[in-house]
Design goal:
Structural class of chain A: alpha/beta
Strand order of the largest sheet of chain A: 1-5-4-2-3
Number of helices of chain B: 5
CATH topology of the largest domain in chain A: Oxidized Rhodanese, domain 1
Low-confidence stretches of chain B: none
Number of strands of chain A: 5
Order of helices and strands of chain A: HHEHEHEEHEH
CATH superfamily of the largest domain in chain A: Rhodanese-like domain
Radius of gyration of chain A: 23 Å
CATH architecture of the largest domain in chain A: 3-Layer(aba) Sandwich
Largest sheet of chain B: none
Order of helices and strands of chain B: HHHHH
Structural class of chain B: mainly alpha
Helix content of chain B: 55-70%
Largest interface: A-B, 37 and 37 residues
Low-confidence stretches of chain A: none
Number of helices of chain A: 6
Number of domains of chain A: 2
Number of strands of chain B: 0
Distance between the termini of chain B: 18 Å
Oligomer: heterodimer
Mean pLDDT of chain B: 84
Distance between the termini of chain A: 66 Å
Chain lengths: 164, 148
Amino acid sequence: MNRAPLQNISRDLALVSAAFLLSIALGFFVNLFRSDPLSFPYRVRSARMLAGVPGTGKEPHAITLAGAEAAWRKGAAVFVDARESFFFEEGHIPRAINLPASKITGKKLPALPADPAANVIVYCSGGDCEDSGIVARALLAAGCQNVAILSGGWDAWSAAKISQ
Amino acid sequence: MGRLVGRKNFPMIARLILAAIFVVAGVLKFPDPLGFADGISGFRLVPVWAIPPLALGIPIFEILTGAALFSARFRPAGSLAAAGLSLAFVLLYAWAFARGLDVRCSCFGNLEVFRVSTGAGLLRALALLALSAWVFIRVCGRMPSKQD
C-alpha cells in the first residue's frame, strides 16, 4: 500500500480540522459585531415563539383522526394548518387555513374565527411537531374557546387517504 | 464551447462548480445565523449547546472550503472538507427523512427558490456527495496534479 497518499490525507485532515475550529472562532468573533447577533444561550424556535404568546392557563386538547374527520365532514370545525406556507402548498386538509407558527408573535395574534366558541382544530406535520401547540396556544390567547390539536397531524391525515 | 467543456476540462469544471456551490451556500447563510440555527435545530439531532458554534462556524467553513477548491495549494484539503460536509448533509437528511420530519432546507440561507422538501433535499445532498466524492478521488488520487 502506498503510504504517501495516506500521509497527505492525514495532513489534510489536520488542516481541515484546524480550519473548522478557526471558522467557529471567527464566527463567534464576527457575531460580536452583528447588528442582530445570535444570542446565548440559544433558544429553539418553538421556545422563542411560545415566549411571545401570552399565557391563558388553558391548554388545547387533543383530537383523534377519527374525531377530526367527523368534524371535517360535518363542517363543524375550522382547520388551521400550522406548518410553513411551503409545506401547506404541497398539500393540506381541504378548507384548512394556513397560519404558520413563525407568523405568531406577541404583538400580532391570529385573527379570531367569527364565533369564539367555534371548534378549531390545529395540526402540523406529524405527531412530534411543535408548531400546532404554538398556534393552538396563540388562538386560545386570542379568545378562541375550543381549540384542539390533531393527533398525528398531516402525516396521519394524508396516510389515511381521507376523501370527500 | 464544446471544446471548453470537453473530457479534459471536465474535472476542472466539476471542481469549480463544487467550489462555487460551497462559496454561495456559505455567503448566503452568513448574514442570518439565527435562521441557520433554527434550520439545524429542525433536524432534532444536534444538542442545543452545539447549535450556536455550528450556526456561526459552518458558513465561514463553507466559504473556506470553496476558496480552497479554487486554489492550487489547498485543493486536496478543500476536496476533503467538501466530501466531509456533503456526507454530513446526507446523514442529516437521511435522518430527517427516516423520521418523517418536515425540515426547511437552510442550505442556501433564505433563498425561497431553494426551499425543498426533505425527500428532495436528501436527493440533492446525495448528488452533492457524489460530486464531492468524485472530486476528492480525482484530487487526492493523484496529489501532484497539474492538469486540473
